[in-house]
Amino acid sequence: MARILAVDFGEKRIGLATSDATETLATPRLTLSRKSDEAVLRELDSFCREEEIALVVFGVPRDPSGSETAFATRIRSFAAKFAARSELPVRFHDETLTSDEAARRLPRTASKGELDPVAAAILLEDYLQSARAHRG
Fold this sequence. Notes:
Elements (H helix, E strand, L loop, with lengths): L2 E6 L4 E7 L6 E8 L3 H15 L1 E8 L9 H17 L3 E5 L3 H8 L6 H24 L1
Parallel strand pairs: 1-4, 4-5
Antiparallel strand pairs: 1-2, 2-3
Helix pairs in contact: 1-2, 3-4
């Protein structure tokens, strides 16, 4: 088994969380400040090499009707740039309400920067659970 990275993409901040090698635990890791796509692509690529990441999961927001939001197009575009650069496989997973759940898990005094990796960990937890269910 390999480690998986979950990415909670935002225009200002990007939250990262990683799985353990058994793909059971999701751990909030860090928040990247997005100044430009190129800069954050370099940081992400470097992080993936250092952490021996084998798969990257990007959260995709959906509206209440279940359709992807307009921002999902931006996320998919960024993910395509990342996949071309890193040559790592990329998956997409519904991230609806991950930030709300992260806010519930953290103290009210937590900063937005603390929220992003926790939201990424919630995304990863859901992805891992879904992947296990599909494997049977």
